[in-house]
Structures
1.
Amino acid sequence: MEKSFRYIYGPVPSWRLGASLGIDLLSREEKICSFDCLYCQLGHTDIHTTDRGIFVTSEALLEEVAELPPELQIDFITFSGRGEPTLAANLGKVIEAIKRLRREPVAILTNASLVDREEVRTELAHADLVVAKLDACSGELLRAINRPAAGITCEAILDGLISFRRQYGGRLAIQIMFVDENREFAAELARLARQIGADEVQVNTPLRPGGKRPLDRIDIAGVVNCFRELPVRCVYEQPRKDVMPISPGETLRRRGKG
Ligand code: SF4
């Protein structure tokens, strides 16, 4: 009988990560996030919080990792899922354990809202690739696009990313979702990406069905032009791999984040 996974999903074909096996340390019916982004594929945030907690025990997650099929071919093991992965207080511990069990590189897709906390930076630093969201260059834009939980500020996110860059030897990518609200701020966002010292910038727009209209290819070409001094990947220009998920139901529930 086919093994069913509860906390692991995919692999999904990711334009940024190739064949990406997802790990969801939140794994609740409710979406748990410190943001409630206008364009979120997962719908409205049910639990809007900055409180970290244990949602899936490390033991339960690692049992699933040990049961992955030996023939599985993936490019990344990616922490993402139904919400913000840094809200899982066992994130660092689980990454360390997975790195002892598997040889694939580990990535985290984070909204960077908790990166001003030292313990979160230390945990993120266990990953080989951190993809940090930065859609806003002001508090006003942050509130308009990302609708953060109380206490999150644009300044704290920027300071946190700059501190993280100083301590982190892995690859740091800044991902920016461009929508009508921030398209005029591309040059300022490029300046911030350079100030942070990002290794690459991922220019995205909401192409999957959701609450926001994507920018078209011409608009995105204009945006990309602002980032020309940085290594840029653009959602319109990346090929996707053909991959078959090991757990189709669990994959579908979370596919919005791929
Ligand atoms: S896009 Fe990501 S950060 Fe934004 S609400 Fe959805 S899960 Fe949270």
Note: The mean pLDDT is 93.
2.
Amino acid sequence: MPIKTLGYGLISVGWMGRVHSRGISQVAERYPELGVNIRKVIAADTLSAARDNATQLMGFESATENYLDVINHPDVDIVSICSPNFLHHEIAMAAIKAGKDFWIEKPMGRNEIESREISEGAIAKKLMTAVGFNYRQSPAIAHARHLVRSGKLGQIYNVEVKMIADYVNDPEGAFTWRYVNEYAGSGVLGDLMSHGFDLVQYVVDDITDVCAQSEIFIKERREAAPGTSHFAKNASGALKQVENEDWTSGMMRLANGASGTFESSRIAVGPACEYSIEVRGSLGTLRWNFENLTELQVAFRNAPEYGFTRALSAPDDGEYGRFQPGRGISMSFDDLKTIEASLFIKSVLERKQIAPSAADCHSAAECVAAAKRSIASGTWQSVHQVSGNRTTREKV
Ligand SMILES: NC(=O)c1ccc[n+]([C@@H]2O[C@H](COP(=O)([O-])OP(=O)(O)OC[C@H]3O[C@@H](n4cnc5c(N)ncnc54)[C@H](O)[C@@H]3O)[C@@H](O)[C@H]2O)c1
């Protein structure tokens, strides 16, 4: 089989940048039928330690402080954009101008306007995109989507989605760009609920209306050096004002007539990454929680044994068989990113949008925007509906 080489450029070598790079590295071996070899051409980061990491340990041929060197490099065909949120728009627009396909982290911009410009710009130039909606890549979610969309749960009555994390529950946790609206756009609404809204739209149907509330519980945090992880504790700098929500919850209505609830927190004590979805229909219910990512709990009204059973992912559920040969063997967060990387590469090779698209991310941003309007007004708000190459709307 002829092997095609794609030149890869990475922008920002933080937590997600390193995860993208590992995911890209795995594609050739896990997806041999793609016949692709990835050349890690160049990485960009403003921190010299991150650049050293890229060239000395991660296999990049070169590194730069300026992300434009990545985008405009003649040997770079595909780009990962893993910078803080406030840079997503300017970097993605530069990639669009240069005609480079890109894999970008969520939230794709700081708000729905930046997200729309990125999505529409990429579509206008016929570029392939991928976004970091990794939770939908769990093989158990593939099974869940099939159960819902094939009618096996009957009429869908309710959806409950939760994105409950503990990553900054310590008031001594470092103040980072995530707490400043100019840099992050929002708090848990963009950071975590964008994943939750995407999961609902991917598994069940479009969200049409939301009614939300939010709260900042830890109002000040201490500044830390640039590049400090948001997981870091014991920061010792000046006290800074937290500008965006630690917690949100609300109600939603879906296009198929179902109603739902959502909740997200970054300061929970106990749940660590309780990212879960429960879908209740007239014939059955399903439950999934990222903390047990290869397990789907299902209950069917007419089953001989009434109540929930655990369905562990099997080789024919989604991409599970690429990673493990039989049920019960764990998969990881990084595996979900490898699947996402493979969908990006496949989209690029086939010139067909298969990976979660920028339009999907724009749609989630419109849900976040409606939630923000609802919080400000205290009323239900309709979600602006996004068309374009939405992969959530594809048939199973
Ligand atoms: N998909 C997911 O589940 C998931 C999880 C975590 C983070 N994210 C997203 O990934 C993005 C990055 O988050 P992170 O946790 O990796 O952040 P991070 O703080 O760990 O890394 C950010 C990196 O960007 C670099 N940077 C800053 N300015 C730069 C510039 N001008 N040019 C190049 N690099 C620059 C920093 O030096 C740092 O290395 C965010 O948008 C976040 O929302 C997604």
Note: The chain has a mean pLDDT of 96.
